Amino acid sequence: MSPDDMLSKLQPTSIQISAIQELRENKRQSDYFNHLSAISESIPALGWVTINQDPSHYVKEMNDAGQFYSNRVLKEWKEINKVHVDWVKAWVETLSDLQNYVQNYYSTGLVCYEIRCGTDDFPPSMIQINTPPTTSPPSLL
């Protein structure tokens, strides 16, 4: 796969990461700013596929980057609403699980051979494409 092909495949994820970071910047007055910041600071972990050496370390760094804001959510909400505490634990666990997955299966980086990179190489039953919902969920912000 050429670098241009790789960029085009990663572009949708990159756009969403940027949208998350922009949302955070636009919601500085929100009661959920620390939540948004925890996600915004750590969501670049999804870019592990571009890291050639020890991508699990990159995922950990991104998890650590969001930890400051995760801790603020815990401190602010632990006595008010346990749902927020559970949310932080779930997010941190998700990133930790991603780190473990990358470490176990891609410890030296993503390997993509020209003949195996495209979805055309796999039977349709092996490919799951989730389409976004047609309606937006209600906004908490």
Automatic annotation (TrEMBL):
One of its GO terms (biological process) is actin filament organization. Residues 6-110 form the CAP N-terminal domain. SUPFAM superfamilies: N-terminal domain of adenylylcyclase associated protein, CAP (SSF101278). InterPro entries: Adenylate_cyclase-assoc_CAP, CAP_N, CAP_N_sf. GO terms for cellular component: cytoplasm. GO terms for molecular function: actin binding; adenylate cyclase binding. Signal peptide: none annotated. Belongs to the CAP family. This is CAP N-terminal domain-containing protein. It comes from Timema bartmani. The lineage of its organism: Eukaryota, Metazoa, Ecdysozoa, Arthropoda, Hexapoda.
